[in-house]
Amino acid sequence: MVLTRDFKETVKERAARDPAFAKAMLDEAATAFLNGEPHVARLILRDLVNASVGFEELATETNRPSKSLHRMLSEKGNPSMDNLAAIFGAVRKRLGVAFEARAVEAA
Asked: Residue 78 and residue 60: Cα distance in Å, rounded?
């Protein structure tokens, strides 16, 4: 008999117990947004919110309704830049990280 686990639960548990993994997820979400892959970034960010801040606390910290935050970070979500900045700011604060942007020449 093969034991299986839900992938999302595995990611959530690892992000909750491994700060380096959670920070890598945040970095990956930011990179995906900057590289023109907002659909991927939203899903990564949603999993990270579930593992770190939680949507109820995120709602309190961002002054936005929890239900709206769920929609923003859904597969078809369309958050504004103000909302994204608030979400990234709350998660960044929770994880204790700072963003640093560097330009890299394209090949």
From this structure: 20
The per-residue pLDDT for range 32-62, each reduced to its tens digit, is 998 999 999 999 999 999 988 899 999 999 9
Whether 73 and 38 have beta carbons less than 8 Å apart is answered as no
Angle between helices 7-17 and 38-51 (to 10 degrees): 60
- Tell me how many domains the chain contains: 1
Tokens of 74: 């859904």
Q: Which amino acid is at 64?
A: R
- Buried-exposed string 14-30: b where 16+ CB fall within 10 A, e elsewhere: ebeeeeeebbebbeebb
> What is the residue type of 33?
F
Q: Is residue 100 part of a domain?
A: no
Residue 4's pLDDT is 67
Do residues 25 and 15 lie in contact, with contact meaning Cβ atoms separated by under 8 Å?
yes
Residue 70, in any domain of the structure:
yes
Q: Residue 80 falls within a domain, yes or no?
A: yes
pLDDT at position 67: 95
